[in-house]
Design brief:
two-stranded antiparallel ribbon, alpha+beta, 2 strands
């Protein structure tokens, strides 16, 4: 499902190091766009989703902090 929507990660290797990964965006753009607004509404109004997003952002900030 993630590959079909283009929400899977694409890792960009460079020599011996691995650069940041990004969304591949190779899938169905229409489906990806139609999932965007429901995701924003879920994060805003669902306490479980907003807590999950806060946890993800804190972990990513720790990971990429120089």
């Amino acid at each position: 499902m993630s590959s079909y929507t283009g929400l899977n990660l694409s890792i960009e290797p460079s020599g011996s190091s691995i650069n940041r990964s990004r969304l591949s965006k190779m899938g169905c753009a229409r489906l990806r766009k139609s999932l965007h607004m429901p995701a924003l509404v879920a994060v805003r109004h669902n306490p479980l989703m907003s807590g999950f997003i806060r946890t993800l952002t804190k972990e990513s900030q720790k990971k990429w902090h120089w």
